[in-house]
Amino acid sequence: LNTSASLSKLDPSLEESARNLGASGLKLFYRITLPLAIPGYVAGIFLTFVWSMSDIGSPIMLSFGNYAPSQAFWELVRVEGMVEYASVICVILTVISILLLLLVNRFVSMKEYATVRVGAASSMAIKQAGGWVTVGFYVLLVSLITISTLPHIGTFIIAFAKLPKYGTWILQGLNLEGWKTVFGRAETKHLVINSLIYATLAGLIDIILGALIGFILVRKKFVGKTALDVISIMPLAVPGVVIALGYLFLFSTRLPGTTFRLSSFWFILVIAYSMRRLPYSVRSSHAALQQIHISLEEAAQNLGASRMWTLLKITIPLMYTGLIAGGTMSFLTSFTEVSTSLMVQPLHGPLGVHARPITLGIYSEILRGAGGYAAAGALGVIQIVIAAICFYFVNRLAGERGELSIGVA
Q: pTM of the predicted model, to two decimals?
């Protein structure tokens, strides 16, 4: 998403000039296109790396115990777990992520990536590739699609088919018991709606805060700028179990003069989701602003526009693709968030079963053993369908404005 947002802002005249001077093919890509797209490309690499380090859902579901984040989770939830051991793991992961962030910022700041002409990349002339380039591209494309869709195929099989007997690969027929369980039990009917509400609110909060923080980091110079950048990315660098546990302890205290605890209010999930995913919007907005030359804003102000008018009419429209990319990632990752949902499970006593998110419902069904796999698969299919619908409408919205078309990997 970040790379696509950067590529959509490239000035096509730069590539045309390079072609007129004799550059073409890989030389044109490595000397012109790739260097200008570095901010978004590096932002995507960094987010992928940090997300992989802080993810606990995948190793827990796949029973990989010798993995740092999952080890921290088990130490926190076990009755006789070592909280100190889990804290050390979290500190190590946080330090690694912060050091990588500083290295990325240093690398990106070594060059200038802004261009005066932006948002015209869609007018580039598309050249048809031929020969072995086309063959290699389709081989790579088919391989990536096959690998990335295997989990989805497995989820659909679990949701709609009877699992094969042990030692065989033959399915035993159609099975809709999982869907009957999902829509037949009162505690599972609200899972999807709850997660949609939580993820939407979290995404809106992240878009607003991400745009504000990104603008300050790129356009303003002040003491503590690096510290703000580090703080804004720390929620993603710190494992979700730590953030969730911190909010749990913080909001479990009674409000002065009352018996009400914030932990009994479902909005704690929105706060945890939005703060956990805020770095997506910050890095996307940061990368988008780096490609918008400040002279465009200065020209508007020289013609009498106020700072607020310039921000609303010039800066934000040019940041559109970055905001959409960051907001989409925040929504989808909040909708599928596992670690935070698992850690706030103790809150569901005062909140009630009707406030549970869908990911906690999937985990609860898996804990039931073979009897709950079908229901877990049905909930997983619902997640996949909602994610696909979300990407479809984002593509339509971006396409109508002549901007970035965000695709599904």
A: 0.72
